[in-house]
Amino acid sequence: MFGVFRRKLVGETSSASIVGRSWRTSRPVASTTATCFASEGEVLLHPRTTGSVRSICHFTQPGATVDLRPLREVMTSLQPCISMQMQSRMFSSDSGDLVDAVVPFMGESISDGTLATFLKKPGDRVEIDEPIAQVETDKVTIDVASPEAGIIQEFVAKEGDTVEPGTKVAIISKSAEGAAAPPKSASTEAVSQPPPPTAEKVEEKPKPKVETSPVIEKPKPASPPPPKTSASEPQLPPKDRERRVPMTRLRKRVATRLKDSQNTFALLTTFNEVDMTNLMKLRSEYKDAFLEKHGVKLGLMSGFVKAAVSGLQNQPIINAVIDGDDIIYRDYIDISIAVGTPKGLVVPVIRNAEKMNFAEIEKEINTLAKKANNGTISIDEMAGGSFTISNGGVYGSLLSTPIINPPQSAILGMHSIVNRPMVVGGNIVPRPMMYIALTYDHRLIDGREAVFFLRRIKDVVEDPRRLLLDI
């Protein structure tokens, strides 16, 4: 028996019919449309609504009165169960075998990012919290991790797409059965396809030969020579020898900040030179004992950080910044260290550098540099900073004019160490010399303070004993 079962709210009475049979009930009921299947005294009601539940009611004879109250009670009791099940499976599909890998929270100041690359392929096995893709933002690169262990079924997003936190990136199957089958190879498809039917050979009768007179071709006129270009016309390279590559979000962010720095600050750079003899001698004598005790190598960077801290304490205006019509003096010293990575320039921050010794500074620099090169550095580790040190000498730079990192007011540039003839005690001797540069905001910092600051850097580096005596 098959029919359509329909009930409508009609105030105090309602009507129902099953294939021409009708009856009345004396209580109002909710409006519902259902398909009714019956066999041997049983009717299966299947409401045509999303998230429906199948319920069964019984009657004894065709045309008998049906009690609708149990159906309403069953539907009411099952609805909370359905909602609870959906809330507990936030990333699951209906089968419970598939989970979604989504973009994680990227920070308060970051609203979106670019899906840079996939670290896995469809069909690969992944473990829980294993990175499967990388999202590039204006500041850092964030990993998209797998929420469950399983097999990647498919990627929903594409490389280069702009994604936000919560955007679905991939679908992962907890079991191997839900994984997508690998695509068939071209050779397999060629074997599976039946060969095309062979065309019947049609015997063609030879056509009679027709004697034709030879045609004499006229000589073609010589093509004119190409026009000669004048010496003044530029010779542009062909387009096929050029490549157009979109800028990464990090590179666009760096370009914007550096250009804003030039447009906002009154940039001025002053220079000096430093004799590195004593600092290099100090490192050479104590590098083994330093490594044995602290577990980190003694470098030159920690000496310049300590010298910068001393200079900022003597000239606090270098550590200040303009904010509207006010000047903000910072009573702390957070040194930003510029680190060049394959993806762009980042500036992790050494917090409270004035409270650190040489060993603590070297450990912090090594930790931040490793994170920056691996792409695992966080936004909090790059936020803030009151002064920046940029060491272009590691790349062989002899002299440069660094650009201020907003919202700071000055930046110190280090350069390569070169042996040059210097006059010491009336004699010309070779010395390992380094040029140092200080770029500062001339709106806030006068030349007097800038020169005194740079001179303090020179004095401390050339004679590190000044740090012990505080002179």
From TrEMBL:
Cofactor(s) named in the record: (R)-lipoate
Keyword Phosphoprotein in annotation: no
Enzyme class: transferase
UniProt GO BP: tricarboxylic acid cycle
Substrates-to-products reaction catalysed: N(6)-[(R)-dihydrolipoyl]-L-lysyl-[protein] + succinyl-CoA = N(6)-[(R)-S(8)-succinyldihydrolipoyl]-L-lysyl-[protein] + CoA
Gene Ontology cellular-component terms listed: mitochondrion; oxoglutarate dehydrogenase complex
Keyword vocabulary terms for this entry: Acyltransferase, Lipoyl, Mitochondrion, Transferase, Transit peptide, Tricarboxylic acid cycle
Compositionally biased residues, Basic and acidic residues: 200-210
Key word Acyltransferase present: yes
Entry EC number(s): 2.3.1.61
Domain Lipoyl-binding: 98-173
Segments of this protein annotated with the region Disordered: 177-249
Cellular compartment(s): Mitochondrion
GO molecular function: dihydrolipoyllysine-residue succinyltransferase activity
CDD domains assigned: lipoyl_domain (cd06849)
Assembly information from the UniProt record: Forms a 24-polypeptide structural core with octahedral symmetry.
Role description: The 2-oxoglutarate dehydrogenase complex catalyzes the overall conversion of 2-oxoglutarate to succinyl-CoA and CO(2). It contains multiple copies of three enzymatic components: 2-oxoglutarate dehydrogenase (E1), dihydrolipoamide succinyltransferase (E2) and lipoamide dehydrogenase (E3).
Protein name: dihydrolipoyllysine-residue succinyltransferase
Source organism of this protein record: Ambrosia artemisiifolia
